[in-house]
């Protein structure tokens, strides 16, 4: 029986170590993540890119993927960030990290924008770790890019 008792002790010890070394809910695959939705619009319109983040401490986006004349601004967030780093792009921070954030980024499609798909990578950072997630929202520009030219009839 000593052998059985040793094996059970070993299994119990390994189980205790494994269960005690798990990450906090903010940094596990189930507790941390980011999703975004795409948007469609025409030149001259503003469209909303919705995001949902779990176990998040920071959210930002990458404007280098968009044409230089496009602007992205903060829409509504629930809960509101506890601070915002005033830069472009800004960084929205929640301290302490929150279990769930839903929000919207407003993308202004400039007049004259060409039809097609444009990418807006959104990045989230988990709580107090360096773990990051990136979700790329696709903004589809539809409709005319310039007003039709007026032609005069010959008389």
Tell me about this structure.
12% of the residues lie in helices and 47% in strands. It has 155 residues and is mainly beta. The chain has one domain: Immunoglobulins (Immunoglobulin-like), CATH 2.60.40.10. Strands 1, 2, 3, 4, 5, 6, 7 and 8 form an 8-stranded mixed β-sheet that branches. The longest helix is centred in the N-terminal third of the chain and has 19 residues.
Question: How would you briefly describe this protein structure?
Answer:
The chain is mainly β. It is 12% helix and 47% strand.
Give the SSE layout:
Elements: H1 2-20, E1 33-36, E2 39-41, E3 46-61, E4 71-78, E5 83-85, E6 91-108, E7 116-126, E8 132-141
Parallel strand pairs: 2-8
Antiparallel strand pairs: 1-3, 3-6, 3-7, 4-6, 5-6, 7-8
Helix count, per DSSP?
1
- What's the number of structural domains? 1
**Number of DSSP strands?**
8
Radius of gyration: 24 Å
* SS class: mainly beta
Elements, N to C (H/E) = HEEEEEEEE
Tell me the fraction of residues in β-strands, as a range. over 45%
Question: Helix fraction?
Answer: 10-25%
- What is the arithmetic mean of pLDDT? 81
Spans of at least 5 consecutive residues with low confidence: 1-29
Coarse morphology = elongated
Mind telling me the CATH superfamily name? Answer: Immunoglobulins
Q: What CATH architecture do you see? A: Sandwich
CATH class category label: Mainly Beta
The CATH topology is: Immunoglobulin-like
Sheet with the most strands?
8 strands, mixed
The separation of the N and C termini measures 112 Å
């Amino acid at each position: 029986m000593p052998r059985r008792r040793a094996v059970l002790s070993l299994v119990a010890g390994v189980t205790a170590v494994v269960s005690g070394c798990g990450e906090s809910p903010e940094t596990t695959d189930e507790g941390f993540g980011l999703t975004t939705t795409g948007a469609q619009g025409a030149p001259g319109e503003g469209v909303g890119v919705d995001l949902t983040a779990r176990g998040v401490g920071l959210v930002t986006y990458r404007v280098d993927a968009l044409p230089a004349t496009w602007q992205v601004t903060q829409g509504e967030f629930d809960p509101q960030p506890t601070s915002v780093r005033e830069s472009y792009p800004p960084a929205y921070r929640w301290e302490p990290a929150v279990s769930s954030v839903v929000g919207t980024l407003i993308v202004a499609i400039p007049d004259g924008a060409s039809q097609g798909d444009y990418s807006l990578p959104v990045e989230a950072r988990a709580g107090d770790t360096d773990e990051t997630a990136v979700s790329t929202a696709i903004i589809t520009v539809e409709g005319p890019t310039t007003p039709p030219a007026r032609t005069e009839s010959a008389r």
